[in-house]
Amino acid sequence: MDNDKHKLVIIVGSVREGRFGPVVASWIAEQARLHAGFDVDVVDLAEIDIPLTLPAASPKYAGDDYPRPAAMAPLTSALESADAFIVVTPEYNHSYPASLKAAIDWHFTQWTAKPVAFVSYGGAAGGRHAVLHLENVLTELHAVTIRDGLSFPNYYTAWQDGRPLDPQAPGYAKTLFDQLAWWAGALRTARETTPYPA
Ligand SMILES: Cc1cc2nc3c(=O)[nH]c(=O)nc-3n(C[C@H](O)[C@H](O)[C@H](O)COP(=O)(O)O)c2cc1C
User: Fold this and answer.
1) Domains of the chain, with CATH numbers?
2) Is the overall model pTM greater than 0.85, yes or no?
């Protein structure tokens, strides 16, 4: 990895059959690669084994001894090595999908003192309820959520051929990346300088 670049992990949060999530994730990954600040990795939760049954121990305290399924290793190592995250989430019943909650709950320290931005989509609210809930949950893990996100209401009329119809969308994405890169650099320096007092 180029050391001047931040490792950005983009998480595809929905695993539903016929889902739209990968379309949104591909576009935001393409935009991120155009931005000079990141090495981009896309992690699709549909490709990871994420059981709902958790071990007895807490991932907050168990550290490397936390007994995760072997097939979860690609997710864990991507989260571990990330300097920044973008969570791509739809809205299900005014919140985010259970697949995302399960992925979050199997981990803890991997999120701590790292920035998270959101790209959401859905019906009229554009996934904003999902993002509000994610902001609340990720604060518990000591992640830092980024104010400027992208939200796509009524995505079924707002996208064509894998891209948003709104000509301003790439500009909004750049603002998101600029803020995410700023926080990624600041927090990476802070993590390397002083242990986070969790
Ligand atoms: C179980 C379920 C609940 C949904 N609830 C909402 C909702 O509360 N608000 C909304 O705007 N859209 C809602 N939708 C529409 C989804 O946002 C839309 O289907 C979107 O494509 C889902 O993302 P996905 O295709 O990546 O799974 C819901 C869809 C499903 C399947």
Assistant:
1) 6-193 (3.40.50.360)
2) yes
